[in-house]
Amino acid sequence: MQPEAQPRIVCKFGGSSLASAEQFCKVRAIVEADPRRRIVVPSAPGKRDARDAKITDLLYLCHHAASIEADFSSPFAQIVDRYVSIERELGLAVGIEAQLEQLRGEFASGVSADYAASRGEHFCARLLAAYLDAEFVEAAECIVIGPQGIVDPDSYAQLGARLSDPQGRYVVPGFYGRDAEGHVRTFSRGGSDVSGAIAARAARAALYENWTDVS
Question: What stretch of H or E contains 177?
């Protein structure tokens, strides 16, 4: 007989916990400290210090500027610098700069505010999945958000199927899913906490941990 699989833990990490390469190292240490921590839900990188900007705020700024055909190169450069620095300092080869260059074109062509904001979690999860040697699970493929912001019940089965391997390690970006038409939709700010709870229910986790560096 095969040994019974251990009950799994879902860990959500806030933006302050993922603000830099150094913080990514702390996250990996936490995840690897308990073999039951198999599913990780990240926020977008937050502030490194009081003078810094949150990635989500910079993305909203870029979207607004692009929507009125104004120059968004300065805030976008800050976004690129943050992600590329994390990738380089962690020794990863995700190709994040090329992915961000594609996003620049999408801003110029016109995207929704929800799509723009969701990229903070999306790119953070791409980096974190590579760093943890985990499988990236695209939230927009599994989580459907209704008109009133309520999660479609079918989302739990869809996401649960993607998280089915008890020995697998998964990273699911927080904060967003899709609407019934397939367009990316976000929860309200702080919605990565909701995403973590969705993942915990979908995976029938034994425990949902919500980690943060902010009191």
Answer: strand 176-178
